[in-house]
Amino acid sequence: MPAEFRCSLNFFTLYQKQMKFTKILVPFFLLASSIAASEPAIWSVNSRADFLKGDSRGVSIDSSGAISISPSFTEIFKTGQPFIWSSVSDLSGNVFLGTGSDGRIYKISPDGKGSLFSDLSELNVSALAIGKNGELFAATAPDGKVYKLDAAGKAEAYFDPKEKYIWSLAVIKDGSLAVGTGESGKIFVVSGPNAKPEDSLMFDTSETHIITLQTDAGGNLYAGTDSGGLVLRFGPDRKPFALLDSPLREIHQIAIGPDGSVYALALGESIAASGPAPQPTPEVKAVTLAKQNPMAPPLPEKSRYDLTGAKSAVYRINPDGGNEIIWSSQTVTAFSIFANKTGGGVLVGSSDKGRIYSILDNGSETLLLQSDAGQVSVLFSNGSNLYAAASNQGNLYKIGSAPQGEGIYESSVFDASFSADWGRIWWRSVGGVRIETRSGNTESPNETWSNWEAVRSTGQSGRVPSPKARYLQWRAILQPTGSAIAAAGNAAKLFEATLGFLAQNIAPEVLSITPQPPNVGLLANPPIQIDPNIELAGLDPQVFGIPPAQIPPRRAYLRGARAFQWNAEDRNGDKMLFDVFYKEAADTDYKLLRENLSENFVSIDGLSLADGRYTLKIVVKDSPSNPAGKFLTAEKISDPFDVDNTAPVVAVVGQPRVIGDAARIEFSASDKSSYIVRAEYSVNGGDWRSVYAEDGISDGPDERYVVEIPIRLSGEYSVTLRAFDLGGNVGNARAVVKK
Fold first, then answer.
1. 366/227 Cα distance (integer angstroms)
2. Burial of 254 from C-beta contacts in 10 A (0-12 / 13-18 / 19+)
3. Model confidence over 421-454: pLDDT tens digits?
4. Cα within 13 Å of Cα(655), Cβ side
5. What is the mean pLDDT of residues 696-722?
6. Out of 173, 408, 507, 711, which residue is the most buried by the measure of CB atoms under 10 Å away?
7. Which one-letter DSSP state was computed for residue 348?
């Protein structure tokens, strides 16, 4: 900003608190589920991160999470143009606005009356400057010129740099006009009309664009570049010195602080790269809120010096040449900065809901106000008032130094995941604060939601008056000091709000039942010991590093065992218990096998069951988390499975035959309950060797096997064949061959 711009504005001192969410339940052990529960739970909003998820109308949010009434923000003038690219004020306090896309300049007098001042032939008035004699200079783009305008708004060409873009203008100490251009990144200094570009070139930066130019009281000229993100200083001798090389692409604006500090706004994506003439967007008034999950865990905090993925950052370059990052954001695209004239720090204008942030030199951050301005493209002062120029649409606003009247904060939309009964809402505040709520069953508020209703409070709490629904929103109305509900002398502030709710209980589900192979048992691993006081206190064991999932069972060989494991979930996050029943195919009723299991598996002693075909029924219930008579159940039946405890019958068929140095033995194998799956033979107690069934595949209840062995030496040979059925049972028979 030119040195004559002055404005006083009080900034907030900031503190940051970590977002909290308390849930009066212990997560269930099989599946991480939704945020709701059939036990009472609470939703708390008590930090800056929480509050920024909502919408602020006439309120500020400091970094401690305190909400207060914001400075006034008043619309002064509508240009009727989609964009305001530039602004400047003269010594009389008149404000000039350079707009697009019709190349018009508007003049607004100190009393707020505005009119068209000049209509230039190019599309955009990209920069404005006031000369030492009060004359107005205007730069146009693309393929534009620098014009000099008289008091009546008549324009005459002053300088043509023969460049695609003229991005910036600044009047230096000797009265010359500095001109920053693109796409060749040149800076010109023009001392009079119709100067030749080659005679006026001060410095070729080898950058693509000179986006911003600024001067200080000492006669220094500062330039911000794209695409190298440089801040260059030119002393009175016009020798360049690089003050900053940012990893972000573009230095979009530079502001000078009262102590000589240089503030530079850096952007991760170039505004210049897309050119200065985007198509205007139709004006739209939002009537709904985008869905957010207010109870989602916060993103990990990052150092403001970590610019990985950053959209915007503000640097402070100290008078001694050192620099620091006082603010950066991964989510907010900033377009303007204004150096506070008292107390240090800057205001930052953004396209984030038309928000203006106050950033102190120590990095403290306050959301000063949120507006309908869309994109706050310029922040400036005329010496007595502070202004914000907005794009899309191109309107001018005045920021007051005193709080406005009533302020309203609307929370983000809370999703209970299921239809919920709302309990009490309680809050901590001072001054005049009124709380209202509304609810609905669509993720964004619309005409189907209930109307806003005031909470009838006793002190700072009261019953939520809104009807049962899945979604809820609350808002706080802050009254100015002296209003009917405001305590005398206490400015209204809200520090936190907490709401209790009970979600509709949803029956748990058994999703699948998986059998293990016969003779494989499932055994419980030693459980993680949890201090019972954790559950009694309603705390989440994960806070103490205890994993939420059950430890999987270990597998072990158990003769005759039939084991099953199942997956189950409860959408409320309730604890579950399981009852296990079994039934033989010919039976009518299921018999209870195990009751109130907390594990999701069971091992059955198959030897205690008769051979046959069975099914298993798993009944799940959420009784540990619900009162007697209120819990819900569900069941699932397994696929049929066979119990086979009887070994195959193996016999020698006929007599072994000896032919020369070889013997041939035939065996039969049969099984009444299942079928033969494989066979092996051994000679004289040696290693077991596989043998195929006579028909090539072991897959039936009756199979024949032929074993041929060499017998080169005289004597007896003992040949044993063993056969396995599907249940893992083994039968064998032995034949003796003599030579």
1. 30
2. buried
3. 999 999 999 999 999 999 999 999 999 999 999 9
4. 4
5. 94
6. 711
7. E
Distance from C-alpha of 161 to C-alpha of 178, rounded to nearest angstrom? 11
Residue 302 banded pLDDT, cuts 50, 70, 90:
confident
Which tokens go with 696? 């090539």
Q: What percent of the chain has pLDDT over 90?
A: 77
Q: Taking the CB of residue 282, how many other CB atoms lie within 10 A of it?
A: 7
Q: Identify the CA nearest to 26 among candidates 15, 5, 41.
A: 41
Read off the DSSP letter of residue 287. -
Which pairing describes strands 386-391 and 577-584: parallel, antiparallel, or unpaired? unpaired
CA-nearest of 628, 413, 414 to 503 is: 414
Residue 360 sits at φ, ψ, to 5 deg, of -90, 165
Contacts of 123 (CB under 8 A, 6+ apart): 100, 101, 102, 103, 140, 141, 142, 276, 277
Contact 170, 129 (CB under 8 A): yes
392-427 tens-digit pLDDT:
899 999 999 888 789 999 999 999 999 999 999 999
Lowest mean pLDDT across 38-42, 257-261, 568-572: 38-42
Contacts of 286 (CB under 8 A, 6+ apart): none
d(CA 542, CA 553): 21
- Give CA–CA dist 77/82, Å, rounded: 13
With tokens 């204004």, the residue in question is 338
Full set of structural domains in the chain with CATH: 41-62+407-503 (2.60.120), 68-275+304-403 (2.120.10.30), 509-643 (2.60.40.10), 649-738 (2.60.40.650)
Q: How many Cβ atoms sit within 10 Å of the Cβ of residue 534?
A: 15
Distance (Å, whole) CA 503 – CA 628: 17
